[in-house]
Structure formats: structure tokens, C-alpha cells
Amino acid sequence: MYNFEFEKPSTIADAVAALGGEDAQALGGGQTLIPTLKQRLAAPSKLVSVSGIAEMQGVCVEDDGSVAVGGATTHARVAADAARSYPALAALAGQIGDPAVRNRGTIGGSVANNDPAACYPAGVLGSGATIVTNTRQMAADDFFQGMFTTALDEGEIITSIRFPVPQAASYQKFLQPASRFALVGVYLARFAGGVRVAVTGASEDGVFRWSEAEEALNKDFRTDALMGLRINPMNMIGDLHGSKEYRAHLVSVMTKRAVESCA
Amino acid sequence: MPKDSGIGASSKRREDVRFLTGAGNYTDDINVHGQAYVHFLRSDIAHGRITNIDTSAAEGMPGVVKVFTGKDFEGVGGMPCGWEVTDRHGAPMQEPPHPILAQGKVRHVGDPIAAVVADSLEQARDAAEAIEVDIEELSAVLDMKAAAQEGATLIHEDLKNNICYDWHLGEEDNNKVNEVFANAAHVTTLDLINNRLVANPMEPRVAVAEYSRGTDEYTLYTTSQNPHVIRLLMCAFVLGLPEHKVRVVAPDVGGGFGTKIFHYAEEAFCTFAAKACNRPVKWTASRSEAFMSDAQGRDHVSTIELALDADNNFTGLRTNTYANLGAYLSTFSSSVPTWLHGTLMAGNYKTPVIQVNVKAMFTNTVPVDAYRGAGRPEATYQLERVIDKAARELGVDPIALRRQNFITQFPYDTPVALTYDTGDYNGTMDKLEAAADLAGFAARRAQSEANGKLRGLGVNCYIEACGIAPSNIVGMLGARAGLYDAATVRVNATGSISVMVGAHSHGQGHETAFPQVVADMIGIDESMVEIVHGDTSKIPFGMGTYGSRSLAVCGSAMVKATEKVIDKAKKIAAHLLEASETDIELKDGQFSVAGTDKSVAWGDVTLTAYVPHNFPLEVEPGLEETAFYDPANFTFPAGAYACEVEVDPETGQVSIEKFTAADDFGNIVNPMIVDGQVHGGIGQGIGQALLENCAYDENGQLLSASFMDYAMPRADDLPFYAVDHSSQTPCTHNPLGVKGCGEAGAIGSPPAVVNAVLDALNSGGRAVDHIDMPMSPSRVWTAMHG
Ligand SMILES: Cc1cc2nc3c(=O)[nH]c(=O)nc-3n(C[C@H](O)[C@H](O)[C@H](O)COP(=O)(O)OP(=O)(O)OC[C@H]3O[C@@H](n4cnc5c(N)ncnc54)[C@H](O)[C@@H]3O)c2cc1C
Q: What is the ipTM of this complex?
């Protein structure tokens, strides 16, 4: 690790101010950032921990029925506190990493990082959630911009994420055997207005919506509707753990299983 | 009735109290006043010529004590290889130099180029970043078959080629072997890869070295399975130090699995640097360093052919293996694909003609050496896979085919240089069939199929040569060391006993099992006996722990030393009881005169030994004896394993539903510890079969360089095991009749898992010939849809 300054403010405003300096970086649960620092792959001048900011903590149900999760809320807390208000999201959070990771890692950190194999991006995109920052609100469809890339500006903090709650939803995660991130993860949410299918782990462009499957399921919400639908393997990730073709195939299988579990 | 103490009792592991409560004392827990920290600058290029190293900027950085490069080690010995293999033409293997820090060339990613010693680790890392290294990159040699071709890029320019040796065992006459295959009613051929593994003990390697100017003495604390071996190699071959001036301590060690047998450059470096810097130095490997510097395991590419006659008797076996040694020869690397592998190719079967061919290759990868099982898993895997394939091709029951070819007469001389002393392969297979409820498999398969899953059953046998080894034999085969062991039994005045043993315990439970033996021999409570291990200044000598040898070899030394103690104690008892020594009997800690009620307690005799007021004049005071034991033969644990898997046909995911092991380990001192050793070994074997894979890309970069990509088995990947070791044919040539159990699980389980998956994939009219390990979901799915 290189030397850095450390601040732990208690308000969003103070955090924004602290992040104003050159090469300052937000620190959530540190589950991604700290290993990166230990390997000397990043050299921020200052880390600004957001975990002491009360207004970024917790899960609550808004007046319009949506579920808002504070940007610094840990996966473990979402798994426990959203279990009733948004069970599929809680189940997703409960499948991230191991207990140590879940008790430190945060939703804001995960979504800001946008790892192509991370779980939350699928939940956020699949739900059509709104990402709320210190300056603006963004639709999930505009937020994720490819592997490790998002619409966040430098120093911008995810303060909360608002999830409209679907009639039914399911996250189907196929584990990468080593990391146990998603080799392929499919988040399917069924709203009155239509079905959303978001896929993580599979694509070289990061999380994406599988629109053909959405269309088919909007017409007929049964697994039969998916028969013959195939993802083009071309843009899929191919690596030690699975070829492009295998990942494309898994997208179909996981989507089918998500439909079954929503039926 | 299970015993509650002594030999045969499942005494609880006393060492676990400290391990489970965080009270262990590992090498990284050791901090010496004033110590500086070492950071190694390692090559990120697999193969290249170093054209320039500039350390001047680094030397001026804050906290830097000294910067070392290969130049500082000119005239210092390199890392030695402990086994000289002779090739098929009688020539010695090619043995390239292996400097402590790279000299002239880097040969694998992770090869240390320079080392910085500084006041803090972060300062050392900062300075390492300021070292300028220019490397002219050369093409990386990775594929073993290509590496063997004439004209291949040379990894070591001073060698003729990249072949360390081309070795052969068994039938020399190719015509004879060809004839056996020509006359066969059936020949089964199989190409397979024994995947490269990273041992990944929980504790990474650590070395702490100090040097005393006042006494000219060194102490090295290191994560080793065999501190005396490290001292011998480092003093005699690397640094040229007198052994009596060097103390090597291996305190609690958090798992070895073979990879901590070897003498590593970092240990020698720290010892050297402690004097050069006149300061204690400490190095703790990061996990990333472990991935690129701990000797790795397996990595064989083989073709095996099995010939059978019209009655399905095995008539011949021929194997051709390319064995990857990596960039340099690690300490025992050369012995693994040869004497620990070729010699096991007979397995449990009376195949009359066997020919084993092994080309050992240098490649631009991390050195490969022994990993739990070491050579024997590679042999077992080949043999048990080809037998399974033969059974499928012939449409015969794989268990019946094995039984028909079992060796049943002992001792048995194999065509590949071993003499099995004893065994009962049919008896062990009977135990397996019962314990695994093989009769119920069809119903379980139907149940799985009803749930949309394919179910498979895989069965295999294994034999291993353990208790290594008779020094005269291994000497003939090229070992540059003897493989005896030693123990000192020191009885204290009040009757408690310290046993100094050469074996090192790093998870095996010696601290519990060894005292069970001594306590049982004397008839005292186990708690009165304790072993001391892991410190060259405390124990007489020891070749350490590997090859499932500790109890069979060091335990035998301990028994011999205890017998000497008892003999002497009997002399003292005879004197106290005014009887003849030959009439003295020892039972339950009491010496008595046969046929009388006269007796004296163990504690009274030991006290007399140290307070010799009333003492036989011809006997020396004190009660302490040492014995060295050199085994007469290897021991031959053997067994039969059964694995049942379910395969999800949609994803290729394999889950292990049932795993049963029937082992013959001869006599057993602590059944619970034996169960644990088998469980751990099977866990590693399942890891190899389903998950673990050390992969390099075409430039020699490690693709699986962290736990993000290297899949270790987790608890939920593993089933509950049924382990049966009631099949017992005691070893005929050691005093305890024990054979060793430490590696069996890792040797026996991979073929069982692979056979099971293939059985599943060949059910219901499907046909898949072979899948290489690890059978990841992706590979299984691809094989099904290939
Ligand atoms: C062993 C292990 C297993 C894991 N398994 C999984 C898994 O199965 N699925 C999965 O999805 N993830 C997994 N993760 C990742 C984990 O979920 C991390 O918690 C997550 O990726 C990052 O969250 P964090 O709070 O730790 O962020 P940090 O590591 O603190 O930060 C990550 C990045 O986000 C930025 N950041 C942090 N908070 C904010 C914020 N509020 N606003 C803006 N930017 C912010 C930081 O500046 C940094 O760039 C695993 C991690 C580990 C170590």
C-alpha cells in the first residue's frame, strides 16, 4: 500500500468536500478497494470513508412503495432488512461473497465499481432502479456503461438506490468456481408494465438487458417462450472458467430458472 | 470395545487446543528485536535475458538497509537438487544451476531478480519499485512436447536441450512390449493430463533469520516440514556454513502438503542477508508470491495403453509421460515422475509386462515438485482411468475386471522394481462394496434421474509406496540423502517423558499419536508423554515428514528407543526388587517379578535412575535413549474408493453425493486421526478432480494467480465421507505394523471422481470418453455437447 490520508466524515456534504481534492477516493466497505491498494494497483492521495454517514445507511420503504437502500448499506443488512419489502433483492445480497464480505461490502461500492461479474448491477438494472447521488438521480439504464465503467463523475457519491418493487423477481446466480462471483447471473423482475431481464457475469460489456427474452416473456410469461432464444456468444466473456458459448448457454438456462422461480 | 487410551484409541488431538484458540506459534509470529524486512523483486516476464539492473536509486531510499542482486551471490552455491536420476542411457540427468537471485536470465514469472532489506516492509517495497531492470524478452517455453523438439528455445543455455532426463522403467525390450500389444485381444488407449496444482497451505512461507557476531551462529526460523534437511542442504550446498553453527527451527507450520519440504532460495537468502546486514531479517510471502514461488504439483501429460487377453486378463501396460519440472529443479522434483511414479504403475494388478517412459521437461513455469501423494496420484490416475475405460469398451463390470486382475499372493515382486510385502485387495474391495452400498446404486440413480440429474458411480483402487525409504535402495536410485529417521526418549526423574522426534508435525497429529505409542508400551497415562519436534537444536536428527513416513519410520525409531529405555529400566527394577532382570515384567506402569507379588512402579524406577543411591553399579545413571531407524522396505497402503456424483445436464455442474473410502493402512494407532487424514486427502483429491487448475497463458503468465481464479475446494463442495479402515494387513517389516495414511485420500480420490462423472455421462445412451481434470461445469457441458 502507498501512503494516503484518511477521513471519515459523518455527513454527505463533508464527504463531498473531502473528495474535492486531487486523487481522493471514496471508501465503502473496502472489499474491492483495499485489496487493490494492497497490491499497489491504485494510489489515491486520500480515502474518504462513507461508512460513518448515518443518512447513507439502511433500508426503508418509501411512500410510493419503492425500497430505498442507503449507499453505504452493507450486503448483510440488505439481506436481513429487505427480506420482506423486496425478497429477491435481499436474496441477491445474501449470495454475495461470504459473511465477512457481506458485513463490510456495500451496495454503493458494488454498483460504483460495476465489476462485470458482480451481482448488484444485475439487481439494479433488472429492477429498473434509480441511482441517487449527491448531485442527481440516474436511471439504471443510463448508469452502467460497460465493464468497471459508470456514469459517475469524479468525486460523485452514490447516496442511495431506489428500487421499484416488482410483482415477482428472482436472481439466478451460477457461481464462478473460484471467486464465486457470478459466472453468469440473471436477475428477472416482473412488473405490471413488463418484464426486465438483466444479465451479469457474461458479457464483455458488463451488465446488460436481454431484450429478446423480455419481449418474449412479455408476450407469454412461461419458460416455453424462451425456447429457441439464444444470446450471440460473440460478445460474451471467454476465459479459464467458461467459453463464450458456455456463458451464452448459461444465460438461457439461468433465465429459464428465473422464470420458473417467479411462476 | 474401542480403547480409551494408548494404541488404537481415538485420543483427542491435544495440539488442537492451541490451534483452535489462536495460541499457535507460527513462523510469522516470531519477531526478533531489530529485525529488518525483505521484499523480493520478482520477474513479471516468463523468459528473458537481464541486460541491466540499476539499484542505485533504490539504495538511497528511506529505510533501505541493503539491496541485493544475483551479483551478490556469485561464488555462493545455488539451490541443490536432492535426487540424481539416471536416464535410459545411463547418463545423469541434466542439472542446471539455480541461483538464489537470478543471474543473467529470468526463467519464470516470479523468479526473484533482486531483494531489498529495509526497516519496514513498505519501505522495502517502495525501494523495489525504484530498481530499474532491463530484460530482453525471449519466447516462453511452455508446451512440453514442443519444448522437447530439436531447435526449441533453450531455457538453460548450458544444457543440450530442455529435457532433464528421458527415463525408463520396466520392460526394456520394445519388441517384447510391441508383441504383447500385437497379441492382445483388446487394447485400450487413453491420453490424459494430470493438472498442475498449487498446494496453497493456509500459512504462506515465512523465513526469519538472525546472526550473532559474538558467537558466529545463525538461527533460521522457517516454515518447513523438515528442518534438519533444510539445515543440511543450506549449509552443505548453498552457503557453505558449518552445521553446528546453524540452528533451524520450524515451529508450528500451517500446512505443508509437500510444498514445504523443499529448500527455497528465500530461506537461504535470509540466512545470508542476516550476516551481510548484521541484522535479523524477516520475509513473509504474500499469497500472490506463494502462487508464483511455492513449488507446484503434478502437471503430467500421458498416454497409457492397456493390453488384455480374450479373458480380460491384463497382459501389458505401456505409458509415455511428459512431466513438467518447471524452470529449475526443486529439491526432490526429479524423483517424483520417476521413482515415486513409474514404480507404482503395477497398481494392485498382476500385469506381467509393464513399460514406463518419462520425459522430464524444463519449461518457463514455477518449479514443480512433490505435492500430497507425489507421483503416486499420477500413476494411480493413469492406471485406474485406463482400466475404467477398458471396462466400458468391453462392456464388463469395472469392479469385476479389477478383481480378476488383483494381486493375491504376497510378497509380490512387481515388474517395476517394488516388492509388496502384504495386502488383501479383495478383502478391501469387499469392505468398500458394503460400506458404499453399491447394491443400492441403481435405485439412487433412478431417483436422481427422476429429478432431472444424471447419476454416476466411479470405483477405483490405489496402492502407494510409503514410509520412505530404505536408504540403501534410494541411494542406488539416485537419492543424495538417507531416508531413515531418529528419536530420543528422555525420561525425567518423576517418570514423565519427552520424545525428541525427527518427524515434523504440521497438521498430522503427531503430538497426540506418538505419545499414545510410548504410553502404551510402558503402561502409563498418555499425558505423561510429550513429543518435541521442529528444532535442530533440540532433536538428534530427522529427515522430516512427507511420503506418509512419520509413524512408519520415525515412529519405529521411537519404538526402538523406548525399547532401549524399558530394557534399562528393567535392569534398575531388577536391582530394586532383588530379582533377575529376565524375570522382570512391565505392565500398566508396574515392574513386577514374574510369578510373585513383588513390584515397583515406573515412577520409582525413573526416580532411582536420577537419584541412584540404591543402584546397580554396572548401569549408568539417567534414563535416556536414542535410536535411528532405517526401514527395510517401503510400506504399501492400498485401498478402494467409490464416488457417486450427480451431473446437472443443463449446466454441467457436478456435485458429489456420496464418497466412500476403504483403506488398508495396516495397524492403526489413532482411528480418529486416520479418518481426518483420509478426509483431508480426499478433499484435496476432489479439489484436483473438480476445481483446481494452475494455468499459464502462452506467454507464461499465470492465469490462476489468486483465489479469484484458482478454485480451492470449500466445505460445501465436499460431501460427508464414509471411511472404513477395518481392512488391515499389518506391515510385515516395521515394529508397529503401520503403513501410513497421509496421502491415500489424495491418491485414491481423483480417479474415483472422474470415473463417476464419466459413468454419469455414459448413462442412458450417451457417450463421453474422457474429460481432463478439473471437470469444471464448463468442461463437462462442453464434453456433453462437443
Ligand atoms: C472474497 C470476496 C467475494 C466477493 N464476492 C462477491 C460476489 O459474489 N458478488 C458480488 O457482487 N461482489 C462480490 N464481492 C465484491 C463485494 O461485493 C464488494 O463489497 C463490492 O464490490 C465493493 O463494495 P465495497 O463497499 O467494499 O466498496 P469499496 O471496495 O470500498 O470501493 C469500491 C469502489 O467503489 C467506490 N465507492 C465506494 N462507495 C461508494 C459510494 N457510496 N459512492 C461512489 N463510489 C463509491 C470506491 O471509491 C471504489 O472505487 C466479493 C468481494 C470479496 C473480497
A: 0.96
